[in-house]
Design goal:
Length: 232
């Protein structure tokens, strides 16, 4: 198995933690995100990390970017789709363009990355696709209509991929994050919350790493992660 991992959607928080975790396991990690300055700083710190400026919603750019990864690092064995986001409005308030933007990054971006990488993943004895999801995929609150509908579609897509690709030895898993991720901006927004209130990105990365190491006889499709204090 080639130890090459692609992380789509790298920023402070889960994306960076995923990069650090897989670099620590001696993977060559392709970091894909829009911020060139941020990626360059991270690549300077982590010798195994490689920066590629990438917008997950620019579907026309996908084939060239993933072919570049293959040429530079070799065949990919792990795809971590961490790109996401959405508009938090009611169905009445949100525009059709806002619905489409949420769908484009959460669903179309995952489809495009998967299609581009499948020929490489199929060359591996063991390969994984892990999607970072959210509890909105399971419940649509009144003011999360664009985001929740996109995440629900993403979850259904991941389920379809898991059923299709499992017989080929490609493990597809969906990770539901139920809680507030520990980030500088969430700390500023919630200054009175204790440490244990937040989801730690390094713990998320550990869980994702575990998924990529599971034996095929006991694969997990969906893993939900939350702090003990989260209401569920």
């Amino acid at each position: 198995m080639n130890k090459v991992c692609v992380v789509v959607g790298v920023g402070p928080g889960n994306g960076e933690a995923l990069v650090r975790r897989f670099c620590a396991e001696d993977y060559q990690v392709a970091m894909l995100a829009r911020s060139e300055e941020y990626l360059t700083r991270l690549a300077d710190e982590l010798p195994n990390a490689h920066a590629l400026v990438y917008d997950a919603t620019d579907l026309d750019a996908v084939p060239a970017v993933f072919e570049s990864i293959r040429q530079q690092l070799g065949e990919v064995s792990v795809l971590l789709y961490n790109a996401g986001g959405g508009i938090f409005k009611s169905a009445e308030e949100a525009s059709l363009e806002e619905f489409e933007a949420s769908w484009r990054i959460n669903v179309a971006g995952l489809v495009a990355a998967t299609q581009a990488l499948l020929p490489q993943l199929r060359q591996q004895e063991h390969a994984s696709i892990v999607v970072t999801s959210a509890s909105a995929a399971l419940r649509g609150r009144a003011n999360t209509a664009p985001f929740a509908s996109a995440k629900a579609a993403q979850r259904s897509l991941a389920q379809s991929l898991a059923r299709q690709l499992g017989p080929e030895g490609i493990h597809v898993a969906n990770v539901i994050l139920d809680g507030v991720v520990d980030l500088p901006r969430t700390r500023r927004a919630l200054p009175d919350k204790p440490d244990e209130f937040f989801i730690q990105p390094s713990a998320v990365a550990d869980a994702v790493w575990m998924l990529t190491q599971q034996a095929p006889s006991a694969w997990t499709f969906e893993l939900d992660l939350r702090p003990f204090g989260e209401s569920w």
